[in-house]
Structures are given as C-alpha cells and as structure tokens.
Amino acid sequence: MPSNPAPWWRSAVIYQVYVRSFADGNGDGVGDIAGIRSRLPYLKSLGIDAIWINPWYKSPMADHGYDVADYRAIDPLFGTLADAEALIEEAHRHGIRVIPDIVPNHTSDQHAWFQAALTAGPGSPERERYHFRDGRGPDGSEPPNNWRSVFGGPAWTRLPDGQWYLHLFAPEQPDLNWQHPEVRAEFEDILRFWFRRGVDGFRIDVAHGLVKDPELPDLPTRNAAEAADTPAPGDETDHPYWNRDEVHAIYQAWRRVADEFPGDRSFVAEAWADTPERLAAYVRPDALHTAFNFDFLMTSWDAADLRRVIDRSLDTLGSVGAPATWVLSNHDVVRHPSRFGRTVAKKWVANAPYRPEGPLDLELGVRRARAAALLMLSLPGGAYVYQGEELGLAEVEDLPEDVLQDPIWERSGHTDPGRDGCRVPIPWSGQSSPYGFSPEDATGRPWLPQPAHWKDLSVAAQTGDPASMLELYRRALHLRRDHPALGDGDLTWLDAPAGVLAHHREPGFACIVNLSAEPYELPAHEAVLLTSGGPLDNGCLGPDQAVWLAM
User: Fold this and answer.
1) Which of 260, 277, 311, 537 is catalytic?
2) Region Disordered: start and end of each range (predicted)?
C-alpha cells in the first residue's frame, strides 16, 4: 500500500442516480431516497466507487429538481433531510461515496430570494441578486437582448411591473447574478452545510454558465435576414454567458471550502467548453478536481475520431495535473445504444439537445455499447455509469405525447420531445411494469411508462447470465478495481490497422476495440481477461467488439 495513495476521485467509477427513476420506496411511482437505500447492496455488488445523485432539494419540479427552492432541504417527494443523512451514512458503510448535484446558475422562481425580488420591485437591492432589466423599445415591450433559452424561446420573461428577468433555461429558473457578493457567500455556506453532513463532493450543474457579461450584449445573428430568434454561437473565448474567465475565481473559492474538510472532498464540473484548453482551466490544481468529458460522449463510433478525442483529453487535462473522465450517457442525452445503432452521423452542438437521425439497428447499437463500455473502463482516469446503461437500456423513443414532462417539450412548441426517453424508471424484476421499481403494494404507476420488453432486461433477468450486459459490467468493474494497470495513469497506443483501437497499460494490460467491418487477428498475449462479445473466433476479434488482454 503506497504511503500516500492517490485521491479516490482520480480513478473512481461513479454511478449516476437519477432519483425519480432509480427506485421507488413508498409506492407513489416516483423514485426516492428510501429506494436508493434499498438498492445500495446492488450498487456495492456492481463494483462502483461513488454515486452521483441528481437534485434532491425542495423544488416545484418545473425541471424535475433543477429548479431549487431551498438548497438545505430535501423535497418531500424524495424524503427528508434525516433520510438523506441516513443514506450518506449507510452508503459509507458500504464503501460508497455520495456526490449530490448543486445547481448554482439559477434558482426556482419559488426561492425565497426571487419571491422577495418580485415583492420589492424595480431598483430594489433584492433584485440585484438576479438579472432584472428594463426592456427595449419605446415602451420597454421588447426583451433586453436577443438571448435564447436552452429549452427554446426567449431567455427573458416580462413581469407585470414592466421589468424583465433572465432565465437561460425555463422561466421558472431565474439566473442568479454571480457578481453579487451575497450570492457567492450563500453558496459557499450551502457547500459547508452538506459537507458537514458527510457528502464527498458535488457535481456542478451548468458550471460554465454562472457569470454573464454585465453589459448583457446581443449575440451576433447569422445573417441580417435572421432576426434575434437565431443568434449565432459567436466566439466562446468571449461569449456573453458561457465559459467566461471570471467563473474560475468562484471555483477557486469553492476549492478552498472543500479543503476545509477531511477526506478528499471533490467537485466535478458539468462544463461545456469549446476547446480542451478552456475545459482544462476548470481543473487546475487550485480549482475544481474533475470535469465531464463531453468530447468523448459526443464522438461518433469511429476509431480515428475516438483516438483523437482520447489523446486530446489526456494531453490537455494532464498538462494541468488533472485526470480525464469518460462518460457514454447521462440524464440529458439519448442513451448510447440508440446513438450507436444508427448509421446516420449527426454533429453534436454544445448546450443543445441531441436527436438521433436515421433508422435504429438496436442489435448493432447494443453490440457497440458493450465494446464502448470496455473501452471507457480501460482508459486512464475516472468513469461515469448512468443508471440502466449496465442493463443495456436503449432510449425509449415512443413515449406517448400525453406523458411527456420535460420542459423542452412545451418550450419547443411540441417539436422536441426532450429528455424523458432516457429517464424512464429502470427495471429491477418481474414480468410486467413496474418491474420492481415500486413495491408490490404500490398505489402509483411509474411516472413514465416502461416498455413491455424491459422484462428481459431487468436486474433479476440478467443476474447470473454470463452473456448479459449486467454481468459484463460487473466483471469489467471488478477487474478494473483489481488490476494494477487500470484506473489513473498512462496509456501507450499499439500499432493497429485503420478502424482498430489498441492500447497498452502497464503492468501487462491491453484493450483492443475493432470498429472496422472485418475481423482483426489479435497480437500475441498471455490470456484473454474479458471480451465484449463472447468467445473469440480463432483468435480474431469480430467487428464492433472489444477485448481486454493480459500481455
């Protein structure tokens, strides 16, 4: 055992728990803290190191908890503060760390601060905590600028008193003014509140979006014929609200707060950056610990593209001493078996919903997802597993319109179904819905309907089946924990033909992924540790398959 082992977060596998859809403890059809506690033994057996919990704070749920009314209280839909404290303690007994979400870019419009601002009126100190402005035009009836909401529509809403307020997301999510000292002090106190209760870190929502240009300038439009409805992205080195340099002083202060507490408390940033260099600025030694690697998540199933992203991520983050992180899916994007099962490639756009195109070959998507899991878990650094990906769940693309709840659906004028398809409650057991998600005596249906074929993908159905996705993840996660070559460190690329990724890690490990259309004859090796697709065919790795080798 090293005298000074590396911090846990440098190589952790963190399992994302979308609370509403993980496990329902009280039978109302919505996941909750009691449900999470009941499944801790499963998470321990899976082999993960920590859980990231999506917002559990008191909220009107206009955006399923990302509109926070009270950062120091648990929403009754999920439980109580005492329940959260019990979960943290119990998870620690299982050797699992707990990382809740923190939502600093905006509050709920029901937050005490925003309600006070509404009451106080224009020009009041209470309004200075948010972005209130007079409108443009002779009567102030036009928004203060042409910014658009990520969820669709204008980023401004007008009040009866004539002023407008900024919301980069839903109108129920007013943006905070991070130039205001009270905002900065309040969030540092919120961090301390939860660190004292034992959380091991935070995932920071919209980490790139806190600071706005105080002049609130228009974004440039693509051409003169296009009005302010379609602002162009502009140069993100000086974007008026994404990735402004001033945001880093906030996170340096947060790092100092985390360092007040023992146990390697850590932050992970949800930071969309236009270059790896700008992403690296978030994870310098005096700032945040890690950041999500959206470049990797957004890359298509192409060997050259993946290698380029892996190299760039390792080089850039390594230059500031930070580990890379790898992720294939989360609660905001189409699940990766459904992305990989399409031949029509589509360029991703940061801060915009991803919608797949073309017919779905789900068998192909699942085969590639299995190979992608072995690639991701073999790379240096940490990794994130979104609940249900270990079951091979695909996007639910046929949800009836009358059940859609994502605010994107309404804000887009019913043209974009939003993110509900990746948030359907996951299956645990049984032959029919709710598949063990809720107890047998449940009074409520799952908050989103589950597909009938999920009976074959439940935890119970896959447990013990060596060909299942669940057992592949279990074997991979346990091998990753036990093998000295895996986790944080370096890799060396091996010679391989176009369409094949092959890398070596010391001591004695190699991962090979065949993204080509032809079988690939494996190099000399001591043993096969794990394959994504079952036994090898005469020492050859088939298309869209991966293997871990002892070298």
Assistant:
1) 260
2) 215-239
Token pair, residue 491, equals 């890799």
260 assigned to active site: yes
Residue with tokens 């887009």: 412
CB of 392 closer than 8 Å to CB of 337: yes
CB proximity list for 139: less than 8 A, separation 6 or greater: none
What is the C-alpha to C-alpha distance for residues 497 and 516, in angstroms, rounded to an integer?
9
Which of 434, 400, 436, 404 shows the shortest CA–CA distance to 419? 404
Whether the predicted model's global pTM rises above the 0.90 cut: yes
Instruction: Residue 442: name the closest of 13, 22, 28 by CA.
Output: 28
Query: Residue 475: what residue type?
Result: R
Nearest to 214 by CA among 245, 189, 177, 261: 177
Catalytic residue at 134? no
pLDDT per position as a tens digit, 174-201: 999 999 999 999 999 999 999 999 999 9
Query: What is the token pair recorded at 435?
Result: 């598949």
CA 211 distance to own-chain centroid? 21
Structure confidence by residue, pLDDT tens digits, 342-380: 875 444 444 444 566 788 999 999 999 999 999 999 999
- CA dist 394 and 270 (Å) reads 23
Catalytic: which of 101, 205, 295, 389?
205
